[in-house]
Hints:
The protein is an all-alpha fold. The chain has one domain: Serine Threonine Protein Phosphatase 5, Tetratricopeptide repeat (Alpha Horseshoe), CATH 1.25.40. Helices cover 44% and strands 0% of the residues. It has 12 helices and no strands. The protein has helices at residues 31-40, 49-52, 116-119, 135-138, 148-162, 177-190, 193-206, 212-225, 229-242, 247-259, 263-276, 281-294.
Amino acid sequence: MANLNFDEINDVKKVLFLDVPLPEVHAEPSEEMVRKGAFYFKPPTANTFHDFCASYKKGSTFLDQIPSTWVSVTAKGVDYENYIDFTTPVAGHGQFEPECPDLDAPSPIESLDHLPPNHVRDRLNKFYKPEKVLTDALKTMAHEMERIEHVAARLHIAMRVSRLEPMNENQDGGVHWTLTTAATLYWRVKGDAVNAIKCLRHSLNNAPPDMRDVALVSMANIYQNTGFLHSAIISASAAYRISPHLIVTHVTLANIYAALADYERALKFYYSTLSIQSNFSPARARIRAIYCQTGMTYNLFPGIKH
């Protein structure tokens, strides 16, 4: 496998052979958060396993499905209305799309250029599929009855206006990072990893340090979708370090660990997700799937198997 190159791979599961090793030190949710989540959704015991899994369909491919996660800048206190004109009608014929500017002098560290997926970022569409589940999130930037093409046009216009604003002179291409971050969502829905990564690299190089988790979560999703699971962990872990109490950073890490079949770490992050939002049904469903599909218990707390 050592001589494999990306162009020769036809199975996304083999992409992992091209990835970097996992970090020696993993991000971990606090034991307090895991215990709190387990209080809201109790793990099965030997006596309750049958009832816990009674409604779960054996042989389900549920865990093989790749969930999509997204952080809106509004969750970080940024108002889109400061950067996008929502009052002027726009055409929705698909002619205008939010193409992000090239970087003048990208920071290899901020852009995560050292990770293997960035070495083949112009070819990631080979395995990337449209994340249609994010359509509703994208349409939060649209008026009622508008399509995603209207959002694309509105972002395209906002980028052109941004270049005329003196306050954006220090942003690459004169485009504010908020717009390139928002544009990423459009490209993810369209299934265009090449343009999505281009927008994310702009965002990572221009956003304030405490806002970079927004782009890092999207980067982790794209890496996961294209088979670079270790790089996805690295990106999601960086987002988690910035915002350890943001629910999306927890569930994103949980999803990637589940894809790696590291179910113990996945469960910990699903339970820490529930500690933040106890009724978060996707986390509950995937907790149930892990227990019922593997039929195993896990060391969630020191010395105790659940």
